[in-house]
Amino acid sequence: MKTQDFDFRLPQALIAQFPPEQRRASRLLHVDGRTGALADGMFSVFPAFVEPGDVMVFNDTRVIKARLFGVKESGGQVEMLLERVLDEKHALAQIRASKAPKPDSRIAMTADAAFTVLERVGEMYKVRLEAQTPLLAWLDRHGSLPLPPYISRQPNPVDEARYQTVYASKPGAVAAPTAGLHFDEAMLNELRARGVGIAYVTLHVGAGTFQPVRVDDVREHHMHSEWYHVPQETVEAVAQAKARGGRVLAVGTTSLRALESAAGGGGLRAGYGDTNIFIIPGYRFQVVERLLTNFHLPKSTLFMLACAFGGMVNMKLAYRHAVEASYRFFSYGDAMLIERNQE
């Protein structure tokens, strides 16, 4: 498979720059991966697509204020994006500066706080916060929201709430699990009232989710690593749903990747760790039967995953329809519900 096989035309005007007025006000494209049939609708009627006994799995990660601006000892300006929080003082960070920082150099942030650069780790740096406050609390006070690179504006107060799911509870992501942005509390309660199971995993989405595939042969791409956790109660919820004939619906590619990572070696198991699972056409899904996701970048690993799930021909036709029908793309865009291709 060539990366070029996953290209498609995407007008710039379809990239959503702002969220809809209400979370549930987005559109919904239903794609039957078994037949290729497409159906246009509104996300407000999403509960009608799930049945009592089904289980929906959400990613409860919380986006942290990971973007920072500081000054090197030489006076040069520095932009930092904390990719992963390691503990109360340490993190892995992307650092953008005129010259690469050296080990043991300091980057001043506020009058009483700085980061010390400890070492280089691949394309990132291990840094230590020099402050009295724990790292996450310090970020919440002094950092800014890391909106995706394709949103061409600065974050505003609306983003503080809307670039976060209503059920976000585990801080650690630098990008939102965007399929979950469509749900409000009322819809979650409506799903529960219908007898739909609600379960959670955690996958801290990294900035690598926005990185392009730079190789011609898809199989040569090295996926970025992200931390995930699948709790025992979610394993039990999935097992119970399958036992009663229900279906497993992953809300977002991150939930799907966490579930499929935890199912390696046969059977879904509780656990946590790093995953760099790369799902492309030909992958055999073990857990998930339905996927709710947003519309993704051309030639991206996320579009490749969608093609693996719904069938490559089906997804290309679905995306062509989405462009022609002016669906909104990416984080603040519209949603797609995909029934798994059975091939």
Structural notes for this entry:
By secondary structure, this protein is of the alpha/beta class. The protein has 2 domains: 3-63 and 159-339, QueA-like (3-Layer(aba) Sandwich); 67-142, Thrombin, subunit H. The chain is built from 7 helices and 17 strands. The protein has helices at 135-142, 157-162, 185-193, 232-243, 253-262, 301-310, 312-324; strands at residues 27-32, 38-42, 55-59, 61-63, 67-72, 77-85, 90-96, 106-110, 113-121, 124-130, 170-173, 197-203, 226-230, 248-251, 271-275, 290-294, 335-339. The strands form 3 sheets. A 9-stranded mixed sheet has the order 2-1-17-16-14-3-12-13-15. Strands 5-6-7-10-9-8 form a 6-stranded antiparallel β-barrel. Strand 5 and strand 6 form a beta hairpin. Helix 6 (301-310) packs across helix 7. It is globular and about 60 Å long.
Summarize, please:
The protein has 343 residues and is an alpha/beta fold. It has helices at residues 135-142, 157-162, 185-193, 232-243, 253-262, 301-310, 312-324; strands at residues 27-32, 38-42, 55-59, 61-63, 67-72, 77-85, 90-96, 106-110, 113-121, 124-130, 170-173, 197-203, 226-230, 248-251, 271-275, 290-294, 335-339. α6 (301-310) packs across α7.
Core attributes:
single chain, QueA-like, Thrombin, subunit H, six-stranded antiparallel beta barrel, globular
Radius of gyration: 20 Å
CATH superfamily of the largest domain: QueA-like
* Number of structural domains: 2
* Major sheet attributes: 9 strands, mixed
Global outline = globular
